[in-house]
Amino acid sequence: MGFSADLSGKIALVTGATSGLGERFARVLAKNGAAVAITGRRVERLEKLKTEIEAAGGKAFIHPLDVTDVGSIRACVDNVWEQFGPIDILINNSGIGEPTLATDFTPEHYDKVMDTNARGAFFVAQAVAKRMIAAGRPGKITTVASLAAIDVVKGLSVYAMSKAAAAHMTRALALEWARFGIDVNAICPGYIVTEINEGTWETDLGKKMIAGFPRKRIGKPEDLDGLILLLSSPDNGFMTGSVIVVDDGQSLG
Ligand SMILES: NC(=O)c1ccc[n+]([C@@H]2O[C@H](COP(=O)([O-])OP(=O)(O)OC[C@H]3O[C@@H](n4cnc5c(N)ncnc54)[C@H](OP(=O)(O)O)[C@@H]3O)[C@@H](O)[C@H]2O)c1
């Protein structure tokens, strides 16, 4: 059965829809009636996803996007708005992990993680909110931060810093945009199996990590369906500035 929300007539822009969580979010939003603008750098994957969403009765629009390039962000948001329609929902999801010990980070590698996860998330939110504000339309912006925004993990220092920035950004933007009817929230997932961490769970370290979790398991992208629908639903009108941990208790103990 699963969760549901009435998103008919809404347009959602999903960043990082080429795999993992973003791909799942696009499918779930489309299944619940939203027309979805799916974005990312790997356009061939977007084409496959569009075909599948449309075969299931949904509506999708493809636009390439590199969130490290502010010109690409602005072109994407403007083209989606003008060619597909005004954006009601943003799922600000693009991100990279890049586990590296702090002593091994180069300035270039540091910039890549920060430019994707923090700077990119900021300028995507800014581009969408500017259009919503100019059009006098309310909206829902949900940024996918991470449990690493709150909890630190060895080898993920810069990732954790970038996600802490994305989480704190959420509260700052919620404060500025509340008066425009734009709800800005963030989710902080625990470990969910996707390409960002594939290969980890079969290693000795991965097995040890799972054994340490209270439920001795990692999540699946569909475990976030209900939360992403709640934060995208026009029926949810009393949440903004929330940074929500959704981790199956992985951070406990
Ligand atoms: N899986 C987890 O355990 C977990 C836990 C907490 C938080 N998260 C967060 O969830 C989000 C989605 O990650 P995932 O787990 O679904 O990993 P994933 O399968 O690797 O997906 C990452 C997505 O980000 C996109 N992306 C990366 N760099 C980009 C760029 N420069 N411009 C535009 N898009 C870019 C990728 O698209 P292209 O490569 O096609 O551009 C891809 O669609 C990330 O922000 C991640 O930090 C994941």
TrEMBL record:
Entry keyword annotation includes Transmembrane: no
Key words, A-Z: Oxidoreductase
Keyword Transmembrane helix: no
CDD domains cross-referenced by the UniProt entry: SDR_c (cd05233)
UniProt xrefs under InterPro entries: KR_dom (IPR057326), NAD(P)-bd_dom_sf (IPR036291), Sc_DH/Rdtase_CS (IPR020904), SDR_fam (IPR002347)
SUPFAM superfamilies: NAD(P)-binding Rossmann-fold domains
Superkingdom as given in the UniProt entry: Bacteria
Gene Ontology molecular function: oxidoreductase activity
Occurrences of domain Ketoreductase (ranges): 10-180
Family: Belongs to the short-chain dehydrogenases/reductases (SDR) family.
Name listed for the protein in its UniProt record: SDR family oxidoreductase
Organism of this sequence: Futiania mangrovi
